[in-house]
Amino acid sequence: MFREPRGAGAPGPPVTAVFGHRGCTEGFLENTIEAFVEARRLGADGVEFDVRRSADGALVVHHDAEVPGVGLICETKVADLPAHVPVLGAVIAACRGMAMNVEIKNKPGDPGADPSGALARAVAAELAEQGRLEDVIVSSFDAPTIEAVRAAEPALPVGWLLGGLASLEGALATALDRRYQALHPFFAGVDGRFVARCHDRGVAVNVWTPNAEHELAAMFEAKVDTLITDRLTAALAMAAGRRGETGPETNGGASSG
């Protein structure tokens, strides 16, 4: 997920790490304890998940700002959220033995957006309290948020999430200037040459979300550090094949897309 600076021309990671996007969503509801436990059972290197804050300040794991049939998370107390929406502490416990990519949802203009840095500091404090300052990276599309995380807990690596239209070269220059440990671009614009340039400068490349087999194969070939995917079983099988191992056990469930 992150790396130390290396000399020009040095090899990339032996095999790209495979993270379940919001856990294992093949037959499981995303961003739930069950999805994270299944990802661990399948042998995922890690999982990516999203953190927001409830009306009473709880750190909850959910992608969208609103829970259907309930309302905005930022306007709802944690006790009034559905049982399947977990708090961050429970997710950390469920992910023991796996790496974690903790995405803080805090884009300006979104419901509950926090420009003060309080959400970032709360996430950093929870990770520190739970003893999860290793094998974890905190990411966000909002650069001030990841900078607030780093100011609150310098031991936490941070990754800057990039949309599909972002300039990769411009983002790399910014990452170097601000000393971010990683870039998290949409996979479609990433190739081996860009990855090599990042690696030569000590910046990891963690991409989201290749799903088709040819997309997964391209990211393995590019030697990205981590791929975050909805096709966890297929990606793990491809990674195992590159290591010469047996692929993961399938769960028999239908993919939720």
Characteristics:
disordered C terminus, globular, single chain, 8-stranded parallel β-barrel, alpha/beta, 257 residues, TIM Barrel, two-stranded antiparallel sheet, 11 strands
Tally of extended strands? 11
Fourth-level CATH superfamily = Phosphatidylinositol (PI) phosphodiesterase
Taking all Cα atoms into account, the compactness measure Rg is: 17 Å
Helix content: 25-40%
Enumerate the spans where pLDDT stays under 50 for 5 or more consecutive residues. Answer: 4-11, 250-257
Give the end-to-end Cα distance, rounded to a whole number of Å: 25 Å
The major β-sheet equals: 8 strands, parallel, barrel
Kindly describe this structure.
- It is a single chain.
- The chain is of the alpha/beta class.
- It has one domain (17-242): Phosphatidylinositol (PI) phosphodiesterase (TIM Barrel, Alpha-Beta Barrel).
- It has 8 helices and 11 strands.
- The strands form 2 sheets. An 8-stranded parallel barrel has the order 1-2-6-7-8-9-10-11, surrounded by 7 helices. The protein has a two-stranded antiparallel ribbon with strand order 4-5.
- α6 (192-200) links the parallel β9 and β10 (204-208).
Topology summary:
Layout: E1 17-21, H1 33-42, E2 46-53, E3 59-61, E4 66-67, E5 71-72, H2 88-94, E6 99-104, H3 118-129, E7 136-140, H4 143-152, E8 158-162, H5 168-178, E9 182-185, H6 192-200, E10 204-208, H7 213-222, E11 226-229, H8 232-243
Parallel strand pairs: 1-2, 1-11, 2-6, 6-7, 7-8, 8-9, 9-10, 10-11
Antiparallel strand pairs: 2-3, 4-5
